[in-house]
Design brief:
- The chain has one domain.
- The protein has three helices and two strands; from the N terminus they run αβαβα.
- The protein is α+β, with helices and mostly antiparallel strands and 73 residues long.
- Helix 2 links the parallel strand 1 and strand 2.
- Strands 1-2 form a two-stranded parallel ribbon.
């Protein structure tokens, strides 16, 4: 994703940011803010999934938070 954002100028564009992980998002959202400093970030969402091997598809963030994020867009 970093390569794409460095190669394409999204200045002045509305950008919606969502990132998924299984326990540690790291600095992804901060990286987006840095790479998109001339863009309008409309929303950021951290989709957290279970890190347990037998529950990899289990979403840990409540659906209400996702709905709230969508409604703010």
């Amino acid at each position: 994703m970093k390569r794409f954002l460095k190669d394409y100028d999204l200045s002045g564009k509305d950008v919606i940011v969502a990132s998924s992980n299984a326990g540690w998002i790291g600095h992804s959202l901060k990286d987006y803010e840095t790479l998109l400093k001339n863009s309008n970030i409309k929303g950021e969402l951290d989709l957290l999934f279970s890190a347990n091997s037998n529950e990899r598809d289990k979403l840990l963030i409540p659906m209400e938070k996702i709905d709230e994020w969508i409604n703010k867009l």
